[in-house]
Amino acid sequence: MRGDYQQLVDEISAALGAPATLEDRDFGLIAFGAHEGEDDEVMDPVRTRSILQRRSSAAVRAWFEAFGITRATTPLRIPPDPAAGVFRGRICLPVRHRGIVHGYVWLLDDGHLTDLELGGRGTPPDPRIAQAMETAARIGALLADEARAGAELGDLLRELLTCPADERLTAEAALRDALRDTLRFPPGSPLTLVAVLPWETTEADGAPLPNLPGLLAACALPADGALAGLVRLRSPGALTPARTVAEHLLRSPRAGAGGAGGTGGAGGAAGGRTRGPRPRAAGIGTGTEDLSALPDAWRQALAAARAARAEPRLGPVTQWDAIGAYRLLTALPAPGPDPAVAALLAPAHAELARTAEVFLDCAGQAGRAAQALGIHRQTLYYRLGRVEKLTGLDLDEGEDRLLLHIALKAARL
Protein backbone atom coordinates (compact mmCIF):
# COMPACT_ATOMS: atom_id res chain seq x y z
CA MET A 1 0.00 0.00 0.00
CA ARG A 2 2.91 2.38 0.66
CA GLY A 3 3.90 1.97 -2.99
CA ASP A 4 0.43 3.17 -3.98
CA TYR A 5 0.97 6.38 -2.04
CA GLN A 6 4.27 7.01 -3.78
CA GLN A 7 2.69 6.51 -7.20
CA LEU A 8 -0.14 8.92 -6.41
CA VAL A 9 2.23 11.56 -5.04
CA ASP A 10 4.32 11.25 -8.20
CA GLU A 11 1.14 11.80 -10.24
CA ILE A 12 0.47 15.07 -8.40
CA SER A 13 4.08 16.21 -8.78
CA ALA A 14 3.97 15.49 -12.52
CA ALA A 15 0.60 17.20 -13.04
CA LEU A 16 1.68 20.44 -11.37
CA GLY A 17 5.42 20.35 -12.03
CA ALA A 18 6.23 20.89 -8.35
CA PRO A 19 7.87 18.80 -5.60
CA ALA A 20 5.09 17.17 -3.57
CA THR A 21 5.17 15.65 -0.10
CA LEU A 22 2.46 13.54 1.56
CA GLU A 23 2.16 13.62 5.35
CA ASP A 24 -0.43 12.09 7.64
CA ARG A 25 -2.53 14.31 9.88
CA ASP A 26 0.16 14.16 12.58
CA PHE A 27 2.71 15.45 10.04
CA GLY A 28 4.43 12.06 9.75
CA LEU A 29 6.02 11.52 6.34
CA ILE A 30 4.35 8.97 4.05
CA ALA A 31 5.79 9.70 0.59
CA PHE A 32 7.50 12.49 -1.33
CA GLY A 33 8.09 13.35 -4.96
CA ALA A 34 11.51 13.91 -6.46
CA HIS A 35 12.86 17.44 -6.62
CA GLU A 36 14.19 18.27 -10.07
CA GLY A 37 16.46 21.26 -10.57
CA GLU A 38 19.54 22.89 -9.15
CA ASP A 39 17.96 25.57 -6.96
CA ASP A 40 18.96 24.56 -3.45
CA GLU A 41 16.51 27.03 -1.91
CA VAL A 42 13.55 24.98 -3.15
CA MET A 43 14.68 22.28 -0.73
CA ASP A 44 13.89 24.50 2.20
CA PRO A 45 14.76 23.27 5.72
CA VAL A 46 11.17 22.32 6.60
CA ARG A 47 10.85 19.93 3.67
CA THR A 48 14.36 18.59 4.18
CA ARG A 49 13.71 17.92 7.87
CA SER A 50 10.43 16.18 7.05
CA ILE A 51 12.19 13.86 4.61
CA LEU A 52 15.23 13.13 6.76
CA GLN A 53 13.42 12.80 10.11
CA ARG A 54 10.12 11.46 8.69
CA ARG A 55 8.20 14.08 10.70
CA SER A 56 7.77 17.82 10.93
CA SER A 57 8.40 19.58 14.24
CA ALA A 58 5.65 20.72 16.59
CA ALA A 59 6.45 24.37 15.78
CA VAL A 60 6.06 23.74 12.04
CA ARG A 61 2.80 21.90 12.66
CA ALA A 62 1.41 24.78 14.73
CA TRP A 63 2.44 27.32 12.10
CA PHE A 64 0.73 25.47 9.25
CA GLU A 65 -2.37 24.67 11.30
CA ALA A 66 -2.78 28.37 12.03
CA PHE A 67 -3.83 28.75 8.38
CA GLY A 68 -6.82 26.44 8.96
CA ILE A 69 -5.58 23.33 7.16
CA THR A 70 -7.37 20.98 9.58
CA ARG A 71 -10.74 22.43 8.54
CA ALA A 72 -10.02 23.09 4.87
CA THR A 73 -11.89 21.19 2.17
CA THR A 74 -10.25 23.02 -0.75
CA PRO A 75 -6.59 23.85 -1.47
CA LEU A 76 -4.92 26.55 0.60
CA ARG A 77 -2.01 28.79 -0.23
CA ILE A 78 0.62 29.11 2.55
CA PRO A 79 3.00 32.07 2.22
CA PRO A 80 6.76 31.76 2.79
CA ASP A 81 8.31 32.64 6.13
CA PRO A 82 12.13 32.66 5.93
CA ALA A 83 12.37 33.28 9.68
CA ALA A 84 10.74 29.87 10.23
CA GLY A 85 12.91 28.20 7.60
CA VAL A 86 10.09 28.21 5.03
CA PHE A 87 11.86 29.74 2.05
CA ARG A 88 9.14 28.94 -0.50
CA GLY A 89 5.40 29.24 -0.40
CA ARG A 90 3.25 26.13 -0.48
CA ILE A 91 -0.06 24.90 -1.69
CA CYS A 92 -1.71 22.54 0.77
CA LEU A 93 -4.10 19.94 -0.62
CA PRO A 94 -6.17 18.53 2.25
CA VAL A 95 -6.46 14.75 2.04
CA ARG A 96 -9.98 13.87 3.15
CA HIS A 97 -12.36 10.94 3.03
CA ARG A 98 -16.02 11.23 4.00
CA GLY A 99 -15.40 14.51 5.75
CA ILE A 100 -12.44 13.37 7.83
CA VAL A 101 -8.95 14.77 7.26
CA HIS A 102 -6.36 12.00 7.01
CA GLY A 103 -3.36 13.99 5.83
CA TYR A 104 -1.96 16.71 3.59
CA VAL A 105 -0.20 16.96 0.24
CA TRP A 106 2.29 19.83 0.19
CA LEU A 107 3.36 21.44 -3.09
CA LEU A 108 6.41 23.67 -3.07
CA ASP A 109 5.89 26.82 -5.14
CA ASP A 110 9.05 28.13 -6.78
CA GLY A 111 7.01 30.90 -8.40
CA HIS A 112 5.33 29.13 -11.28
CA LEU A 113 2.25 28.21 -9.19
CA THR A 114 1.66 31.74 -7.90
CA ASP A 115 -1.10 32.55 -10.38
CA LEU A 116 -2.69 29.10 -10.29
CA GLU A 117 -6.40 29.36 -9.48
CA LEU A 118 -7.24 27.19 -6.48
CA GLY A 119 -11.02 27.53 -6.71
CA GLY A 120 -13.55 28.52 -4.10
CA ARG A 121 -16.07 31.34 -3.73
CA GLY A 122 -17.72 30.41 -6.99
CA THR A 123 -14.48 30.37 -9.00
CA PRO A 124 -13.61 27.03 -10.62
CA PRO A 125 -10.12 25.67 -9.91
CA ASP A 126 -7.44 25.29 -12.53
CA PRO A 127 -7.87 21.87 -14.21
CA ARG A 128 -4.49 20.77 -12.87
CA ILE A 129 -5.59 21.56 -9.31
CA ALA A 130 -8.88 19.74 -9.88
CA GLN A 131 -6.92 16.71 -11.09
CA ALA A 132 -4.60 16.90 -8.09
CA MET A 133 -7.57 17.06 -5.70
CA GLU A 134 -9.07 13.97 -7.33
CA THR A 135 -5.78 12.17 -6.72
CA ALA A 136 -5.75 13.48 -3.11
CA ALA A 137 -9.22 12.00 -2.66
CA ARG A 138 -7.88 8.61 -3.80
CA ILE A 139 -5.10 8.96 -1.26
CA GLY A 140 -7.70 9.79 1.39
CA ALA A 141 -9.63 6.60 0.62
CA LEU A 142 -6.46 4.52 0.96
CA LEU A 143 -5.55 6.19 4.26
CA ALA A 144 -9.08 5.62 5.54
CA ASP A 145 -8.88 1.91 4.66
CA GLU A 146 -5.52 1.68 6.39
CA ALA A 147 -6.88 3.49 9.44
CA ARG A 148 -9.81 1.06 9.67
CA ALA A 149 -7.46 -1.93 9.44
CA GLY A 150 -5.18 -0.38 12.04
CA ALA A 151 -8.11 0.36 14.33
CA GLU A 152 -9.29 -3.25 14.10
CA LEU A 153 -5.84 -4.56 14.95
CA GLY A 154 -5.63 -2.07 17.80
CA ASP A 155 -8.97 -3.24 19.17
CA LEU A 156 -7.78 -6.86 19.09
CA LEU A 157 -4.52 -5.91 20.80
CA ARG A 158 -6.45 -4.04 23.51
CA GLU A 159 -8.68 -7.07 24.02
CA LEU A 160 -5.68 -9.37 24.50
CA LEU A 161 -4.00 -6.99 26.98
CA THR A 162 -7.09 -6.32 29.09
CA CYS A 163 -9.29 -9.43 28.94
CA PRO A 164 -9.53 -11.93 31.85
CA ALA A 165 -7.02 -14.77 31.82
CA ASP A 166 -9.65 -17.35 30.87
CA GLU A 167 -10.45 -15.41 27.67
CA ARG A 168 -6.89 -14.88 26.46
CA LEU A 169 -6.72 -17.92 24.19
CA THR A 170 -9.63 -16.59 22.15
CA ALA A 171 -8.20 -13.07 22.04
CA GLU A 172 -4.77 -14.40 21.11
CA ALA A 173 -6.18 -16.44 18.22
CA ALA A 174 -8.16 -13.46 16.92
CA LEU A 175 -5.09 -11.20 16.93
CA ARG A 176 -2.93 -13.88 15.30
CA ASP A 177 -5.47 -14.36 12.49
CA ALA A 178 -5.85 -10.62 11.95
CA LEU A 179 -2.08 -10.06 11.77
CA ARG A 180 -1.78 -12.86 9.24
CA ASP A 181 -4.74 -11.82 7.09
CA THR A 182 -4.27 -8.04 7.23
CA LEU A 183 -0.48 -7.69 7.30
CA ARG A 184 0.59 -11.16 6.12
CA PHE A 185 2.51 -11.38 9.38
CA PRO A 186 3.83 -14.95 9.86
CA PRO A 187 3.04 -16.63 13.21
CA GLY A 188 6.04 -17.10 15.45
CA SER A 189 7.75 -13.90 14.36
CA PRO A 190 9.43 -11.93 17.19
CA LEU A 191 7.47 -9.09 18.77
CA THR A 192 7.51 -6.77 21.73
CA LEU A 193 5.37 -4.03 23.21
CA VAL A 194 6.12 -0.36 23.74
CA ALA A 195 4.31 1.74 26.36
CA VAL A 196 4.10 5.53 26.04
CA LEU A 197 3.13 7.60 29.09
CA PRO A 198 1.05 9.71 29.12
CA TRP A 199 -1.11 9.40 26.00
CA GLU A 200 -4.11 11.56 25.10
CA THR A 201 -6.77 8.86 24.89
CA THR A 202 -9.67 11.14 23.94
CA GLU A 203 -8.19 11.78 20.51
CA ALA A 204 -6.11 8.65 20.08
CA ASP A 205 -8.95 6.12 20.36
CA GLY A 206 -10.25 6.83 16.87
CA ALA A 207 -7.04 8.11 15.36
CA PRO A 208 -5.20 6.39 12.51
CA LEU A 209 -2.19 4.26 13.32
CA PRO A 210 0.99 6.36 13.36
CA ASN A 211 3.01 5.89 10.16
CA LEU A 212 6.06 4.13 11.61
CA PRO A 213 8.01 1.20 10.15
CA GLY A 214 7.69 -1.89 12.32
CA LEU A 215 4.64 -0.68 14.26
CA LEU A 216 2.00 -3.35 13.60
CA ALA A 217 -0.80 -2.21 15.91
CA ALA A 218 -1.45 0.40 18.55
CA CYS A 219 -4.19 1.06 21.06
CA ALA A 220 -4.85 3.54 23.82
CA LEU A 221 -5.43 2.03 27.26
CA PRO A 222 -7.28 4.70 29.26
CA ALA A 223 -7.01 2.77 32.53
CA ASP A 224 -3.24 3.09 32.31
CA GLY A 225 -3.23 6.49 30.58
CA ALA A 226 -0.87 4.95 28.05
CA LEU A 227 -0.49 3.88 24.45
CA ALA A 228 0.46 0.28 23.70
CA GLY A 229 2.39 -0.29 20.49
CA LEU A 230 3.03 -3.74 19.02
CA VAL A 231 6.41 -3.76 17.27
CA ARG A 232 7.97 -6.31 14.97
CA LEU A 233 11.55 -7.32 15.82
CA ARG A 234 14.31 -9.03 13.88
CA SER A 235 14.94 -11.34 16.85
CA PRO A 236 13.57 -11.46 20.40
CA GLY A 237 16.73 -9.89 21.83
CA ALA A 238 17.16 -7.17 19.18
CA LEU A 239 15.05 -4.30 20.54
CA THR A 240 16.41 -1.48 18.35
CA PRO A 241 13.22 -1.29 16.20
CA ALA A 242 11.15 -0.89 19.38
CA ARG A 243 13.38 1.91 20.62
CA THR A 244 13.06 3.69 17.26
CA VAL A 245 9.26 3.41 17.37
CA ALA A 246 9.21 4.63 20.98
CA GLU A 247 11.32 7.69 20.16
CA HIS A 248 9.01 8.60 17.28
CA LEU A 249 5.86 8.11 19.36
CA LEU A 250 7.23 10.39 22.08
CA ARG A 251 7.48 13.16 19.49
CA SER A 252 3.81 12.76 18.61
CA PRO A 253 1.52 15.63 19.70
CA ARG A 254 -0.68 12.97 21.34
CA ALA A 255 2.04 12.11 23.84
CA GLY A 256 0.92 14.44 26.63
CA ALA A 257 3.05 16.49 28.95
CA GLY A 258 1.73 14.69 32.02
CA GLY A 259 0.58 15.83 35.42
CA ALA A 260 2.42 17.35 38.33
CA GLY A 261 5.39 15.41 39.62
CA GLY A 262 4.63 13.89 42.96
CA THR A 263 3.68 15.59 46.19
CA GLY A 264 6.83 17.55 46.69
CA GLY A 265 8.73 14.78 48.43
CA ALA A 266 11.23 12.39 46.91
CA GLY A 267 9.23 12.13 43.71
CA GLY A 268 9.71 15.81 43.08
CA ALA A 269 13.01 16.64 44.68
CA ALA A 270 15.09 13.60 45.56
CA GLY A 271 16.66 13.59 42.14
CA GLY A 272 17.30 17.31 42.18
CA ARG A 273 14.21 18.20 40.18
CA THR A 274 11.71 20.90 40.94
CA ARG A 275 7.99 20.33 41.08
CA GLY A 276 6.12 20.65 37.79
CA PRO A 277 5.01 18.57 34.83
CA ARG A 278 6.50 15.10 34.78
CA PRO A 279 8.25 14.16 31.53
CA ARG A 280 6.74 11.89 28.93
CA ALA A 281 8.48 8.54 28.71
CA ALA A 282 8.37 5.19 26.94
CA GLY A 283 9.13 1.66 28.12
CA ILE A 284 9.97 -1.49 26.18
CA GLY A 285 9.09 -5.03 27.23
CA THR A 286 11.12 -8.14 26.49
CA GLY A 287 10.90 -9.68 23.03
CA THR A 288 8.83 -12.81 22.45
CA GLU A 289 7.75 -15.13 19.65
CA ASP A 290 4.60 -16.16 21.51
CA LEU A 291 1.49 -13.97 21.45
CA SER A 292 0.44 -15.46 24.79
CA ALA A 293 3.41 -13.66 26.38
CA LEU A 294 2.25 -10.21 25.24
CA PRO A 295 0.28 -9.40 28.45
CA ASP A 296 3.50 -9.95 30.44
CA ALA A 297 5.47 -7.88 27.93
CA TRP A 298 2.90 -5.10 28.35
CA ARG A 299 3.29 -5.10 32.13
CA GLN A 300 7.04 -4.88 31.66
CA ALA A 301 6.78 -2.04 29.13
CA LEU A 302 4.40 -0.09 31.34
CA ALA A 303 6.63 -0.61 34.37
CA ALA A 304 9.64 0.63 32.38
CA ALA A 305 7.73 3.72 31.25
CA ARG A 306 6.68 4.49 34.84
CA ALA A 307 10.27 4.06 36.02
CA ALA A 308 11.57 6.34 33.26
CA ARG A 309 9.11 9.06 34.27
CA ALA A 310 10.13 8.71 37.91
CA GLU A 311 13.87 8.47 37.30
CA PRO A 312 15.06 10.81 34.51
CA ARG A 313 18.45 9.09 34.29
CA LEU A 314 16.63 6.04 32.88
CA GLY A 315 14.67 7.83 30.18
CA PRO A 316 13.07 9.05 28.14
CA VAL A 317 13.10 5.53 26.62
CA THR A 318 14.16 2.53 28.66
CA GLN A 319 13.85 -1.25 28.64
CA TRP A 320 12.35 -3.35 31.40
CA ASP A 321 15.63 -5.18 32.01
CA ALA A 322 17.40 -1.84 32.60
CA ILE A 323 15.27 -0.40 35.42
CA GLY A 324 16.86 -2.32 38.29
CA ALA A 325 14.94 -2.19 41.58
CA TYR A 326 11.99 -0.57 39.83
CA ARG A 327 11.18 -4.01 38.38
CA LEU A 328 10.06 -4.94 41.90
CA LEU A 329 8.70 -1.56 42.97
CA THR A 330 6.41 -1.17 39.96
CA ALA A 331 4.89 -4.58 40.67
CA LEU A 332 3.85 -3.59 44.19
CA PRO A 333 0.58 -1.86 45.14
CA ALA A 334 0.79 1.85 45.84
CA PRO A 335 0.30 2.30 49.61
CA GLY A 336 0.94 5.56 51.37
CA PRO A 337 4.46 6.33 52.60
CA ASP A 338 5.78 4.38 55.55
CA PRO A 339 5.04 6.30 58.78
CA ALA A 340 8.73 6.52 59.62
CA VAL A 341 9.53 8.23 56.32
CA ALA A 342 6.40 10.36 55.86
CA ALA A 343 7.86 13.46 57.53
CA LEU A 344 10.99 13.31 55.34
CA LEU A 345 8.81 13.38 52.20
CA ALA A 346 7.29 16.74 53.11
CA PRO A 347 8.20 19.56 50.68
CA ALA A 348 10.09 21.40 53.42
CA HIS A 349 12.58 18.52 53.65
CA ALA A 350 13.12 17.95 49.93
CA GLU A 351 16.86 18.62 50.17
CA LEU A 352 17.24 16.15 53.02
CA ALA A 353 15.34 13.51 51.03
CA ARG A 354 17.59 14.12 48.04
CA THR A 355 20.69 13.85 50.24
CA ALA A 356 19.50 10.56 51.75
CA GLU A 357 18.67 9.07 48.36
CA VAL A 358 22.00 10.00 46.81
CA PHE A 359 23.83 8.64 49.87
CA LEU A 360 21.99 5.32 49.58
CA ASP A 361 22.44 5.24 45.78
CA CYS A 362 26.17 5.51 46.47
CA ALA A 363 25.97 2.40 48.69
CA GLY A 364 26.54 4.49 51.81
CA GLN A 365 29.95 5.73 50.65
CA ALA A 366 30.18 9.21 52.12
CA GLY A 367 32.95 10.44 49.82
CA ARG A 368 31.10 9.48 46.65
CA ALA A 369 27.82 10.91 47.96
CA ALA A 370 29.37 14.24 48.97
CA GLN A 371 31.01 14.56 45.56
CA ALA A 372 27.75 13.73 43.75
CA LEU A 373 25.89 16.31 45.82
CA GLY A 374 28.64 18.93 45.52
CA ILE A 375 28.88 19.42 49.28
CA HIS A 376 31.51 18.98 52.00
CA ARG A 377 31.55 15.61 53.75
CA GLN A 378 30.77 17.26 57.10
CA THR A 379 27.69 18.86 55.54
CA LEU A 380 26.64 15.41 54.36
CA TYR A 381 27.00 13.98 57.88
CA TYR A 382 25.00 16.88 59.33
CA ARG A 383 22.16 16.29 56.87
CA LEU A 384 22.16 12.54 57.45
CA GLY A 385 21.92 13.20 61.20
CA ARG A 386 18.82 15.32 60.57
CA VAL A 387 17.37 12.51 58.44
CA GLU A 388 17.84 10.07 61.33
CA LYS A 389 16.12 12.45 63.77
CA LEU A 390 13.17 12.99 61.39
CA THR A 391 12.64 9.31 60.65
CA GLY A 392 13.87 7.57 63.79
CA LEU A 393 15.92 5.28 61.54
CA ASP A 394 19.53 4.29 62.13
CA LEU A 395 21.50 4.60 58.91
CA ASP A 396 24.15 2.26 60.31
CA GLU A 397 21.55 -0.53 60.24
CA GLY A 398 21.05 -2.39 56.96
CA GLU A 399 17.27 -2.93 57.37
CA ASP A 400 16.72 0.75 58.19
CA ARG A 401 18.72 1.74 55.13
CA LEU A 402 16.66 -0.68 53.01
CA LEU A 403 13.37 0.74 54.30
CA LEU A 404 14.45 4.32 53.63
CA HIS A 405 15.79 3.53 50.17
CA ILE A 406 12.63 1.68 49.11
CA ALA A 407 10.42 4.46 50.49
CA LEU A 408 12.32 7.15 48.58
CA LYS A 409 12.19 5.20 45.31
CA ALA A 410 8.53 4.32 45.78
CA ALA A 411 7.73 8.00 46.36
CA ARG A 412 8.97 8.73 42.84
CA LEU A 413 6.37 6.39 41.40
Automatic annotation (TrEMBL):
InterPro entries: CdaR-like_regulators, Homeodomain-like_sf, PucR_C-HTH_dom, PucR_C-HTH_sf
Biased composition (Gly residues): 256-274
Highest taxon above the source species: Bacteria
Annotated Pfam families: HTH_30
Region (Disordered): 253-276
PucR C-terminal helix-turn-helix domain residues: 352-410
UniProt name for this protein: PucR family transcriptional regulator
Lineage: Bacteria, Bacillati, Actinomycetota, Actinomycetes, Kitasatosporales
